[in-house]
Amino acid sequence: xxxxxxxxxxxxxxxxxxxxxxxxxxxxxxxxxxxxxxxxxxxxxxxxxxxxxxxxxxxxxxxxxxxxxxxxxxxxxxxxxxxxxxxxxxxxxxxxxxxxxxxxxxxxxxxxxxxxxxxxxxx
Length: 123
Fold this sequence. Notes:
This protein is mainly alpha-helical. The chain has one domain. Helices cover about 65% and strands about 0% of the residues. It contains six helices and no strands. The chain has helices at about 5-15, 25-40, 40-55, 65-85, 100-105, 105-120. Helix 2 crosses helix 3 and helix 2 packs across helix 4 (about 65-85). The chain starts with 5 loop residues before the first helix and ends with a helix.
């Protein structure tokens, strides 16, 4: 996985916007995690791009507010952290859109809440 520049990440997103969380390769999650940690602004920009492209491809309306975008960015960051931390049994939910109740009620999310609530994700 060679994604060393923001341009590379954008290209990967364009090719994988229909991916589900359970399909995300841990090595890719590691790259995205590093981007989130070291270049937060770039991470947020490409994540929002993924949401907008995913909605466009599905013929759905774009996010209706900045609040909706921010909520997605927070969920996306948690999804990346979960795969980076190798949390088992992540659900089959859209990577680049909201996972809804299926995500929030998953066993993997419950495990992640315990892990992150106490000490945060693994470095």
